[in-house]
From TrEMBL:
<keyword id="KW-1015">Disulfide bond</keyword>
<dbReference type="Pfam" id="PF00431">
    <property type="entry name" value="CUB"/>
</dbReference>
<keyword id="KW-0677">Repeat</keyword>
<feature type="domain" description="CUB">
    <location>
        <begin position="8"/>
        <end position="124"/>
    </location>
</feature>
<dbReference type="InterPro" id="IPR000859">
    <property type="entry name" value="CUB_dom"/>
</dbReference>
<protein>
    <recommendedName>
        <fullName>CUB domain-containing protein</fullName>
    </recommendedName>
</protein>
<dbReference type="InterPro" id="IPR035914">
    <property type="entry name" value="Sperma_CUB_dom_sf"/>
</dbReference>
Length: 126
């Protein structure tokens, strides 16, 4: 037994960009257990229109209705709109939001992993 496997990884990153790219830790290899990753996207403008495109998502589904591991995307400024919160598989999913700050969260529990996710965001002020 390696105790290091039981230490959760908590990471917070700020992304000060109107465009960008985020992947789950280790992508395209399997993401680690016990992860809590947060990316705060700061567009700098409350009227920024942001499109998220999830090219690939493969997050372990649990046997019940809840997601033990999940990807979540929220508008946090102005507060608060949840644009997305899911596990499982999908490809080429588009989401649209508007605002100054968005939060992308990725949570994994202590067992069972998959490839994770690969997404971009693109902003405009039109
Ligand atoms: Ca898991």
């Amino acid at each position: 037994m390696y105790f290091s496997e039981f230490i959760a990884t908590n990471t917070l990153k700020y992304e000060d960009n109107i465009d960008g790219h985020i992947v789950s830790p280790g992508y395209p290899l399997e993401y680690p257990n016990n992860s809590n990753y947060t990316w705060v996207i700061r567009t700098g403008n409350t009227s920024a229109n942001i499109m998220f495109r999830i090219f690939e998502m493969d997050i372990k589904e649990s046997t019940g209705n809840s997601c033990d591991d999940y990807l979540e995307i929220e508008e946090i400024e102005p507060c608060c709109v949840r644009l997305f919160k899911r596990c499982g598989r999908l490809e080429n999913k588009n989401l649209f939001g508007r605002g100054k700050e968005f939060r992308v969260s990725f949570i994994s529990d202590q067992r069972l992993t998959e490839r994770g996710f690969n997404l971009i965001w693109r902003g405009s002020f039109l």
